[in-house]
């Protein structure tokens, strides 16, 4: 079955290559990726319409940084939150619980697990928990006014299904990206 296959070796070899970077290189790379994530996330506020297509890509820099190094990834995640506080404060409530948290979850899953299904479930769980916190605990209508902020098992099920599909898309995107990175990085 497709989901029970081991993730490609391209990702593992790229992780090993990045692990040979010095602490300074990792820190600089983390800061650059945090700036890129903040730009992507704030694009929806600066360029309504087109920016909403760009803003989901804020997951990619956090995911990449988490795969390189846990500490660099967490610093990048926190730095992105601080940059959003300055650049686009309205996005600060969304990023830490959705796109950023998905990047953290998938990055950790790629680092610790090899099977696609486990990586998918971990990423989907992080995203589902983040959306549920925003929707049910903080009462922030992250899914728009059509979705009630009162707890509903049906809504949570739909969010979980969406999170699985979204995480699956990111897993495939990451696999393709690392095949390309392997060819670029010596």
Automatic annotation (TrEMBL):
Residues spanning the membrane: 27-50, 62-87, 93-110, 117-138, 150-171
Keywords, ordered alphabetically: Membrane, Transmembrane, Transmembrane helix
Protein name: Uncharacterized protein
Organism: Neobacillus notoginsengisoli
